[in-house]
Amino acid sequence: KHTVNLEHKRADVRVKPVALEMGVKFELHASISGKKINVSEVPELSLPEDWVRDKLELNFYKSEQGGGGEVESVNYNKQSRTAVITFLNP
Asked: What pLDDT, in 10s, does the model give residues 37-84?
């Protein structure tokens, strides 16, 4: 339970848990060469293409200790279910 002061008025508020939707988990196949990773067999998802690009970027950006790093670009082709992730550094 918390009390919040808003313009000389007090409001008592309570924290309640919020149910979140389950994330989408999938497996990727990748071949690595220099600054680029070629990703194949990207699953068909009912997500907008820009969301899939963002998910791919985040996946490879946050896996820095596993060979990822800062992403320069993500070229995703929904029809062929492939993507090319280009990094700023090799």
From this structure: 888 888 888 888 888 899 888 888 876 555 678 899 999 999 999 999
User: Is 22 inside a domain boundary?
Assistant: no
Q: Which domain holds residue 82?
A: 34-87
pTM above 0.70, yes or no: no
End-to-end CA distance of the chain: 50
